[in-house]
Amino acid sequence: MSIIFFIFVTSLLYMVAKAGYKRMPWPIFHPLLLSPILIIGLISLMHVSADQYLDRAKFLTHMLGPATVAFAIPIYKHLPVLKKYIGTIVTSITVGTLMAIFSSFLLSMLMHLNNQFLVSVLPRSITTPIAIEVSKDIGGIPTLTTVFVILTGIIGGIIGPAVIKRFAIKSTIAKGLALGMSAHGVGTNKAMEYGEQAATFSTLAMIFAASITVLWGKFLIPVLVSFIG
Amino acid sequence: MKIIMIFIQIVFIHLFLLLGAGVKALIPIPIPASMIGLLLLFLALCLKLVKLEWVEQGGNWLIAELLLFFVPSAVGIVNYDEMLSWQGFSTVLIIGISTFIVMSTTAWIADKIMIRKERDTQ
C-alpha cells in the first residue's frame, strides 16, 4: 500500500514541479530541486524517515537501469553523424572528462573538503545512473554523488548560454558537445534550444562522457584517491 | 493503447538490462550492467535483430522522464547534515567553478576542431 502511495506521490509532485518549471523556468523551480524539497516536507509531516521513503520508492530509482539502456536508441538513430564526427567527439569529451575530474579534485583539496565529499564529487559530471556506479567503484557515497550530479546539471543549465556567448562559440556541434559534457541530461534539455543538431551532439557527449568516465574510474581516479589516503 | 505499448516496450528494454547483468555475472567486465545492456541493445539494433519500432516509444518515454527516477535519491540528502554546513557550501562552489571550466574547455576545443574541419573542406 505505502509503496504504491509513495511512488504515486513522487510522480505527482514531479509532474507538478515539471509543469511549474515550464511556466517559470527559475532555478529554484527545477523539478530536481522542488520535488525532493516537497517530498522531504511531506515525509517529515508523516513521520516517515528518509530511509523508509527510499526503500518504498526504490522502484523509481531502479528505472534508471532501463533508462540507461534506452540511450542505445538515440545513438542508433544518429549513427551517421556519430561516424562522421567521431574524432571531434572523442577528443573534446576525453579532455572534458579529464577537466571535470582534475578540477573537482584540485578544488576539493584546496577547499579542504572531507574525504567522503571529495571522492563522491569526482564523478559529478556524468549522467546519474552511471555516476552512481562509478561512485560505488571508487569508494564514494552514491546518494551524495547523485546530489552533486543534480547540482552540476542545474548550474550547467543556468551558466550554459552565458558561457557559449562569452567564448563566442560558433559551431552548433560544439555547443551541443559542451552542454552534454558539462551538464549531462539537463544540458541536453538546454541544447534543444539551439536546435535538433545541438541536442543530438549533447546526447552523444553525455553517453561518451559516461563511458570514458567509467574507464577513468578504473584507472585514473583510484590513483588520485590514493593521494588523500 | 499508447500507454500499454510504452509499458510493453519498457519491459522489453528491461530484458537488455537483465542480459547485461547476466553477461557481467559470467564474465567479470569492469563496466556497469546498464552500460552492457546499452551496448547489447545498440548491437541488436545495428544487426536488425530488434526493430527500432519495438523500443522507440518506450525508450523515448524513459529518456523524457529520466529526471523522475532521480527524485528519491535526491531526497536521501537529508541523511547528510554536512550539506547545510560550510562543507556543503564549499561543495556547491566547487561544482560551480568546475562546471564552468569543463563547459568552456569542451566548447572551446570542439569549436576549434570544427572550424579547422570546415576550412579543410573548403
Automatic annotation (TrEMBL), chain A:
Subcellular compartments: Cell membrane
Segments crossing the lipid bilayer: 28-48, 60-79, 85-107, 144-164, 204-228
GO cellular component entries: plasma membrane
Main localisation: membrane
Keyword Transmembrane assigned: yes
Pfam families: LrgB (PF04172)
Keywords noted in UniProt: Cell membrane, Membrane, Transmembrane, Transmembrane helix
Membrane-topology descriptor: Multi-pass membrane protein
Name this protein carries in UniProt: TIGR00659 family protein
UniProt organism field: Sediminibacillus halophilus
Lineage start: Bacteria, Bacillati, Bacillota, Bacilli, Bacillales
UniProtKB/TrEMBL annotation, chain B:
Bilayer disposition of the protein: Multi-pass membrane protein
UniProt name for this protein: Holin-like protein
Domain of life of the source: Bacteria
Keyword presence, Ribonucleoprotein: no
Cellular location(s): Cell membrane
Keywords: Cell membrane, Membrane, Transmembrane, Transmembrane helix
Organism: Sediminibacillus halophilus
InterPro entries: LrgA/CidA
Transmembrane portions of the chain: 7-27, 33-50, 62-80, 86-110
Claim: Cell cycle is one of the keywords in the record: no
Cleaved signal peptide residues: none
Cellular compartments per GO CC: plasma membrane
Pfam families xref list: LrgA
